[in-house]
Amino acid sequence: MLAGWEDIRAEVLRRIRAHDWRPGDTIPTEEALALEFGVARATVNRALRELAEEGVLERRRKAGTRVALHPVRRATLDIPLTRLEIEGRGQAYSYRLLSEEMASPPPAVAARLGLPQGAQMLHLVCLHLADDRPAVLEDRWLNPETLKVQPDFHLVSANEWLLANVPYTTGDISLSAANATADEARLLDLPPGSALFIIDRTTWDRDHPVTCVRLAHVPGFRMRTTV
Amino acid sequence: MLAGWEDIRAEVLRRIRAHDWRPGDTIPTEEALALEFGVARATVNRALRELAEEGVLERRRKAGTRVALHPVRRATLDIPLTRLEIEGRGQAYSYRLLSEEMASPPPAVAARLGLPQGAQMLHLVCLHLADDRPAVLEDRWLNPETLKVQPDFHLVSANEWLLANVPYTTGDISLSAANATADEARLLDLPPGSALFIIDRTTWDRDHPVTCVRLAHVPGFRMRTTV
């Protein structure tokens, strides 16, 4: 018996894998599938929606649902707090503020945050350590209007403070690789030129720019996901 | 008027951002929210489910739904076909098979695919080019049992062939950074030690191991997403 939407999803996927329905084919309507499987139309709808979100099906208004020609596989990536990521690996977390000053961000940072050039922002550089060894170098520009109170960033990382005080922001993330500069290598205790895994994040609270941060991870760091 | 689940989602998010509901707070039941908003309980359910999938809420069987204490932000990552990724940047795509041989994979590859050590697999090394410049070096081990016909991998990349013939597989993905070895640097026309963005994928078709591939991307490559 096909009961839940997960069963319908599995059966649709089975037919696609078996090439009963081939890439580009329009599949039967929700009504027809509901009738065939003996379930509510809402159940079929849920299953097809999930498969569309995964990139397996393409739903086209009026033209029906078809098997994706070039499925873009969609993976879900967890972006944890750096402390929780390190503790999750069973290592002891510590944190060190390296510098804190008001300054004008580079034009690219101002542009990404939609701020005028020359606007003053709080520039924080800090180090996240795992078992007392450098793990992540954080270079952050913070919109001072975000700070209703001025936290002591020697005691709490901006990462933690923002999450507690300006949570549920929206933002862009970009992942890349870069050779460590001489400064980065020194701060991270690595040979110059080491390959760093870079996470760049730009964050807004509704329409207000909050922060622009570059997290440089030492070799060995991995982000994992499944498709 | 609060009509659709997107409106309910936005209102719940607004209350969380306004700290009406704080991290760790249990929020009202679906019934109470449906009554307050004047919508069906299924509409509230859909909105809360989305927010739970995004990591904003935690749904606990019997204990109700609460605002996540440490929200793990979840981002969606598109994993496109290398050709489409290059063409999507407006560059001309080309492909070159560098080597093809039957061999025993390194123990780590055999282990990841769940194959006995010493099992013979097809080893393919190929280059994906953008505007005639090396963009991605692909090092792939392929389970020969996957190949019912033997394609000519000079003409079609394994990437494309698998998508057309063994689509909708499941798999693990790992993202990391690595310094180019001397060989990699030579094949990618880069200085030795250049920081490469590495995507490792291991793929199964239901329970059958299909392939294990390492895609090394030249500097400048970025994966982008939003939260």
Automatic annotation (TrEMBL), chains A, B:
Signal peptide as annotated in the record: none
Entry keyword DNA-binding: yes
Sorted UniProt keywords: DNA-binding, Transcription, Transcription regulation
Domain HTH gntR-type: 2-70
GO terms for MF: DNA binding; DNA-binding transcription factor activity
Pfam families: GntR, UTRA
Name of the featured protein: GntR family transcriptional regulator
Source species taxonomy: Bacteria, Pseudomonadati, Pseudomonadota, Alphaproteobacteria, Rhodobacterales
